[in-house]
Amino acid sequence: MASESNGWLGFARNVGPGLITGASDDDPSGIATYAQAGAKFQYGLLWTALLTLPLMSTVQEICDRTALATGKSLGALASDRFKRWRVGLTALVGLLILANVLNIGADTAAVGEGMSLLHAGPATLWAALAGVAITAVVVAGSFEWITRVFKLLCLALLTYVVVLFFASPSWSDVLLHTLVPHVQFSKEYMLLFIAVLGTTISPYLFFWQTANRVEEMREEDRGNASSVSLRVRSGRSADRKLQLSRADDFAGMAFSNLVMFAIIVATGATLGSQHGGTDITSAAQAAQALKPVAGGASELLFALGFIGSGMLAIPVLAGAGAAALAAVVHHDWGYSRDVGDARLFYVVVAAGTLGGTVLTLIGIDPVKLLVFSALVNGLLAAPFLVLVMLISQDASVMGRKYRNGRAAQILGWGTTALMAVAALLYLALNYLT
């Protein structure tokens, strides 16, 4: 096994799953949600950036630790741990794949919109090209090459941090609204609050985090057919791997929330300052609306971020669902596997990316796709979090050393309860009022 370096070099070599998970969380649907939050309520929802950071960091660290401790993905662990409930588990994964396909459709359309903002041609043409190109790359490319592309695409999100400074916000107001919640008990505010929760703590991220970590562990020893878990490593090597992986997780979640913070502040400082706020239904619309205030650079930067985030999120969405389904039914999976060795995985990936692309070409409203997929993801978050928490606290699965500590238990179950309440509140506000 390759030795693990200390310091920044070691961290740089291990960075990946956490960073990619965090960046893929800021897909076009998330960007549109954050832009709408800033445009409609200015800085009124900015405090959610502080709320979600420890919650999503805890959840992703727990998911990552299950993969590190066992060498298995969440799908495989859930299938082993809940054998009696395999039919129900498969049905939940099926709903996850459905939500992911709808999200892929919306994200593919978003890539097309981004190219259209750059005056590169029709949005539908670029959406179709993006879907076909991504499918070809993930099926034909090597895992190492795909991972490098993923890391480069993460950098596209830095454009939103740059946009923040074009907006010239009032930093005293930003600090006040970040530290002190300004809650409004209106239907619009509460629905956006729930949308922010749903887009930052999404079930596909749980499966992607574990699957991506397992694949990274497979690649550490190229002669090994399976991942080498912490429980079979030497004590020093295991501790070092856990430390570096946690740093990766927290850095990825911090990066994700920084982008969220920047988008809310930028749109809040410009569009949200108008009386009554502005309704924004996509990041492309936000880019166009910002142009008179922040100049043409904001449109360019928003477009680049939109394209990069969509190109990153699409294979993550497809891969997360495919890895979950393949593991549950005991088939091989992963971008590190050849197509012949993981046929079901690649069939589901291709069906997801191409199916989502078809949805954009037949004229289905991408905003409606995002709303429906967000609803499904919001409803699925709590059940999947229950699975994650039961697995991660089980000493027979994790070992006594790597099972949840007290802080992970409190924050993990607290997040589960919050997502369950949010889902019920969403249903109540939409269908009972």
As for the CATH topology, it is Amino acid/polyamine transporter I
Which residues form runs of ≥5 with pLDDT under 50?
A: 1-12
Mean pLDDT reading: 82
Radius of gyration: 21 Å
Q: Structural class given helices, strands, pairing? A: mainly alpha
Tell me the count of domains.
1
CATH superfamily caption = Amino acid/polyamine transporter I
Estimate the strand proportion: under 5%
CATH class: Mainly Alpha
Cα-to-Cα separation, first versus last residue: 59 Å
> Level of helix content?
over 70%
Looking at the structure, what is the overall shape? Answer: globular
Query: Number of DSSP helices?
Result: 19
Biggest sheet statistics: none
Under the CATH scheme, the architecture is Up-down Bundle
How many β strands by DSSP?
Answer: 0
Structural notes for this entry:
- Helix 2 runs antiparallel to helix 12 (203-220) and helix 6 (86-117) packs across helix 7 (123-140).
- The termini are far apart.
- The longest helix has 36 residues, at 235-270.
- The protein has one domain (7-431): Amino acid/polyamine transporter I (Up-down Bundle), CATH 1.20.1740.
- The chain is globular, with a radius of gyration of 21 Å.
- It has helices at residues 7-14, 17-25, 28-41, 48-70, 74-81, 86-117, 123-140, 143-154, 158-166, 171-179, 187-200, 203-220, 235-270, 283-294, 296-328, 343-361, 366-392, 395-398, 406-431.
- With 433 residues, the chain is an all-alpha fold.
